[in-house]
């Protein structure tokens, strides 16, 4: 059971840190994925400021959750 918590903790930590440290790049990548099938070219999409902020706070939360799982 502890091995599963470790793997989950490391996963949350990896995803959370990327969202907390580089939220613009993560959000832009997600917007580019969302632009697939759209008439807008994937290299022309830009994330909204609220989305970048939400990604940063979500990354901080996931990082904290990952640390909690690692020490559980």
Q: Your description of this structure?
A:
It is a single chain. The chain has 72 residues and is mostly helical. It has one domain (1-71). The chain contains 3 helices and no strands. It has helices at residues 2-21, 23-34, 49-70. α1 runs antiparallel to α3 (49-70) and α2 (23-34) crosses α3. The mean pLDDT is 93.
Low-confidence stretches: none
N-end to C-end Cα span: 11 Å
β-strand amount: under 5%
Q: H/E series, N to C?
A: HHH
- Arithmetic mean of pLDDT: 93
Largest sheet: none
- Which class best fits the helix and strand makeup? mainly alpha
Helix content: over 70%
In one word, what is the shape? Answer: elongated
Show the helix and strand layout.
Blueprint: H1 2-21, H2 23-34, H3 49-70
Structure keywords:
elongated; 72 residues; 3 helices; mainly alpha; 75% helix
Give a concise summary.
With 72 residues, the protein is mainly α. Helix content is 75%, strand content 0%. The chain is built from three helices and no strands.
């Amino acid at each position: 059971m502890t091995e599963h918590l470790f793997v989950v903790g490391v996963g949350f930590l990896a995803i959370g840190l990327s969202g907390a440290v580089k939220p613009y790049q993560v959000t832009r990548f997600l917007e580019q994925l969302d632009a697939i099938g759209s008439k807008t070219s994937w290299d022309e999409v830009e994330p909204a400021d609220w989305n970048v902020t939400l990604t940063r706070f979500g990354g901080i939360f996931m990082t904290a959750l990952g640390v909690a799982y690692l020490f559980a």
